[in-house]
Amino acid sequence: MFEQNLQTLVTYAIALVVPLLFLSFRLRSNKSKTPPPAAEEPNKPLKPIMQPANADLAPPKDDPYTPEQLAGYDGSDSSKPILVAIKGDIFDVTRKAEVYGPGCSYNVFAGKDGSKGLGMSSLKAEHAVSDYSDLNESDMKVLNDWHDFFSKRYNIVGKVVPSNTPSANM
């Protein structure tokens, strides 16, 4: 009987000790693999997400473009610049073709005035329209921020005019 009790006691001891040893091993091995806290890392300058303002912008132009004419500057013809209009002002975004060119994230705004979509922070084609009159106050602030952003980085090359404007002969 004593032998049977001893065997049971040893079995329980092994059943408890083996998992504890395994867990302590795992905890020790994980501690050695964890990266040092962020405060201990050397300070590296962060790469800016957005491009800085461009100090070499040309004076704004007011060349008239109808929506139909503007549509020809959507990046599909590499011999033409890529143009984006915001609140009627037309910006030349050609130097950021990797963003506004065909198949790229913001191409939905290329070759048109997509003010409403910018204000709504929407990349849906049905929102990329010029009429932003129904934007709420918050969306209007976003739209104005986009206009300010573009104004500091891209040349204004024209203005969107109604389709029936006789002086729009680009």
Short structural summary:
This protein is an alpha+beta fold and 170 residues long.
Question: Overview of this structure, please?
Answer:
The protein is of the alpha+beta class and 170 residues long. Helix content is 36%, strand content 9%. The chain has 5 helices and 4 strands. It has helices spanning 2-33, 67-70, 97-100, 115-120, 137-151; strands spanning 64-65, 83-86, 89-92, 155-160. Strands 1-4-3-2 form a 4-stranded mixed sheet. Strand 2 and strand 3 (89-92) form a beta hairpin. The radius of gyration is 31 Å and the shape is rod-shaped. The chain starts with a helix and ends in a 10-residue tail after the last strand. The model has no long low-confidence stretch (mean pLDDT 85).
Q: Between the first and last Cα atoms, what is the distance in angstroms?
A: 106 Å
Compute the number of strand runs. 4
Average pLDDT, all residues:
85
User: Helical percent range?
Assistant: 25-40%
How large a portion of the residues is in β-strands, by DSSP E? 5-15%
How would you sum up the major sheet?
A: 4 strands, mixed
Total number of helices: 5
Using only CA atoms, what is the Rg?
Answer: 31 Å
Spans of at least 5 consecutive residues whose pLDDT stays below 50 are: none
Give the helices and strands as they follow along the chain: HEHEEHHHE
Helix vs. strand class: alpha+beta
How do the strands of the widest beta sheet line up side by side?
Answer: 1-4-3-2
Shape: rod-shaped
